Amino acid sequence: MNPIYALIAERAKHACEYCHAPELVFNFPFEVEHITPVCRGGSNDPQNLALSCRSCNLRKG
Ligand SMILES: [Zn+2]
Questions:
Q1: Most CB atoms closer than 10 Å: which of 16, 28, 45, 48?
Q2: 23 C-alpha to center of ligand 1: Å?
Q3: Per-domain residue ranges for the chain?
Q4: Residue 7: its H or E element
Q5: Cα of 8 from ligand 1 centre, angstroms
């Protein structure tokens, strides 16, 4: 698991930062994703990371 997950999940209060679905209703932990992808110059800073549920993550592609 991403070591920064705990920090991001705490900040997001364990809810998806896009659709605000609570992590609790899913049977697996949310994923930490980059708002600006690393390949496009995004950093690994918490400011560039968001807790995302699977559907938001997939939608974003
Ligand atoms: Zn979501």
A1: 16
A2: 9
A3: 5-60
A4: helix 5-11
A5: 14
